[in-house]
Amino acid sequence: MKVINYQKESSRYSIINDLRSNLTSIGAEIQKINEMASLVDEIVRDSYIRADTDMRDSCSAAQSSIVHALSILKDALQLARQLDISEEISS
């Protein structure tokens, strides 16, 4: 017979809450990176200096990476919700 293992259930809730917190934090960081990228773009617009181009490329790469990380964490959250918290006991 299967029953809920309350220690596993508690651990699953901790994982879910940690992932939610991470998603919230990353969402805030995405906003900051977007603001910084806009500022950089405004400063270096129409510039062909290598450092300016490299800075713009770095901002773009950071945006892409953090959005990818956000996607992975969202997937992890869905998987965490599906974790098996039951255990088999003999009757």
Identify the notable features of this structure and list them briefly.
91 residues, mainly alpha, two-stranded antiparallel sheet, 2 strands, rod-shaped
CA-CA gap between termini: 7 Å
Q: Largest beta sheet, briefly?
A: 2 strands, antiparallel
Radius of gyration: 21 Å
The percent range for strand residues is 5-15%
Reading the helices and strands in chain order gives EHHE
What's the domain count? 1
Secondary structural class: mainly alpha
The largest beta-sheet arranges its strands as 1-2
Descriptive report:
There is one protein chain. This protein has 91 residues and is mostly helical. It has helices spanning 6-44, 50-81, and strands spanning 2-4, 86-88. It has a two-stranded antiparallel ribbon with strand order 1-2. Helix 1 (6-44) runs antiparallel to helix 2 (50-81). It starts with a strand and ends with a strand.
